[in-house]
Write a structure and sequence with these properties.
Layout (H helix, E strand, L loop, with lengths): L1 H25 L14 E2 L2 E2 L5 H13 L9
Length: about 70
């Protein structure tokens, strides 16, 4: 009888441990990509291969340039 109880306890412990490990693994999200995939553009600015910080700087610099418009009239 004692052996049966021990066996059930071991099996139950393994089941709980497996359930916890499965839940942790299922919640494991992949880390964000270190760089933006090649071919991506933002407002005509090629940001492919850049980090998010580099892309932010490139886009901000591009759009910080004054745009001169000539209007006939």
């Amino acid at each position: 009888m004692r052996r049966v109880v021990l066996c059930i306890a071991v099996v139950a412990s393994l089941a709980v441990a497996g359930g916890i490990a499965g839940a942790v693994r299922a919640d494991d999200t992949p880390p964000p990509a270190a760089t933006i995939p090649l071919g991506v553009t933002i407002g005509g600015i090629d940001v492919g291969g850049m980090t998010a910080d580099d892309a932010t700087t490139a886009v901000q610099q591009a759009f910080a340039q004054p745009l001169e418009l000539l209007v006939a009239g």
